[in-house]
Amino acid sequence: MKNDLFIRAAFSQPTERPPVWMMRQAGRFMKEYWDIKNRYSFLEMCKTPEIAADVTMLPVDLLGVDAAILFSDILVTAEAMGGQLSFEQGVGPRFANPVRNRADAEALQVDVVDKLQYVAGAIQVIQQRLQGRIPLIGFAGAPFTVLSYLVEGGSSKDFKRTKLLLHNEPELAHMILQKIADVTVDYLNMQIAAGVNALQLFDSWALALAWDDYKRFAHHYNAYIFSKLAREGVPVISFCKGSSVFAPIMAEAGPDVVSVDWNADLRMVKDSLPQGMAVQGNLDPFVLYADKRVIKERILHLFDGMRGQNGFIFNLGHGIMPDIPFDNVKYAIEVVKEFSY
Ligand code: CP3
């Protein structure tokens, strides 16, 4: 690997500067993304290895990030399990057949890794194009977050149906979560076999949960997944919105890296984690709308707090928004790359 800053930081080894990549780095804030998106549907893009590779490479070539992330979506596992998934412009993901009762839950399939082979295909094409320049991050959605989309039938503000399921029918919730967890283990091990260099588990909506519910319905399954991965040499990142609260339990699940949202003081989180566990984060993505002077100030301030620390990957606290100016994203990456410890 020519540039292994990201891998070293993820394993808490010394680096000359923090590595940088950004969640949603291959997306709608780029004109070049729209040039492709205007010709295909989002799912077609995910399912055609050459196109998924083209999109994955955009931020590698145009932004100079230190890691690539596979172009796909967290909901492809739920689709493979039987969810009728569509992405509508301005609406986001929709499942036409939400999971609302025991029969729906029983109908969810678990032996589905064959249906996800297009992802292995994409990983192989991307690795041919990367030629060992930088690592490739694979990913999946965490069981609780995927469950929430299956139950709500799409995005939700309050996760009302999901919480009702957890509270009124915990056994049924556990049955579905275990199915998703088993699919996720197979899927992530398939990604490792296909050649990804790191993995991130996205539990985007865990912040909706109370502490005990997080433990029972999110943490338990994430820990199960981490324990079943062939992770030798492949660092694993645990992301959730809510990590500023849940970081101590996230650490117990045993990832290599905890990815932190922007509410938390990154150094405080780092100091609270076990020795040798790295942090990723945590610039407020809204800072990237601001003047370049502010962007630089905020990044350098973040770095000040992390001075002398191994195990720090620079990222945003959540994904890049579609209307953030491309120039500002590029500038932020330059600021990181000019820095040295
Ligand atoms: O980070 C990357 O650049 C890699 C690709 C990636 C996408 N989705 C592409 C995408 C990744 C890692 C994801 C993960 C994902 N998908 C998450 C977890 C990360 C997070 O944001 O918390 C979640 C919750 C989803 C589900 C999802 N997919 C939603 C809610 C939406 C629509 C809403 C939105 O943000 O626009 C998507 C669609 C989606 N996934 C797009 C992209 C580029 C937009 C598709 C389009 O062009 O319309």
Automatic annotation (TrEMBL):
Site (Transition state stabilizer): 73
UniProt-recorded Gene Ontology molecular function terms: uroporphyrinogen decarboxylase activity
Record GO biological process: protoporphyrinogen IX biosynthetic process
InterPro entries for this protein: UROD/MetE-like_sf, Uroporphyrinogen_deCO2ase_HemE, Uroporphyrinogen_deCOase
Pathway: Porphyrin-containing compound metabolism; protoporphyrin-IX biosynthesis; coproporphyrinogen-III from 5-aminolevulinate: step 4/4
Top-tier EC class: lyase
One GO CC annotation: cytosol
E.C. number(s) listed in UniProt: 4.1.1.37
Location of the Uroporphyrinogen decarboxylase (URO-D) domain: 19-28, 137-153
Main location: cytoplasm
Cross-referenced Gene3D superfamilies: 3.20.20.210
Subcellular location as annotated: Cytoplasm, Cytosol
Catalytic activity reported: uroporphyrinogen III + 4 H(+) = coproporphyrinogen III + 4 CO2
Binding-site positions, substrate: 24-28, 73, 149, 204, 318
The entry's keywords: Cytoplasm, Decarboxylase, Lyase, Porphyrin biosynthesis
Family: Belongs to the uroporphyrinogen decarboxylase family.
Complex formation: Homodimer.
Name of this protein: Uroporphyrinogen decarboxylase
Lineage, highest ranks first: Bacteria, Pseudomonadati, Bacteroidota, Sphingobacteriia, Sphingobacteriales
Gene expressing this chain: hemE
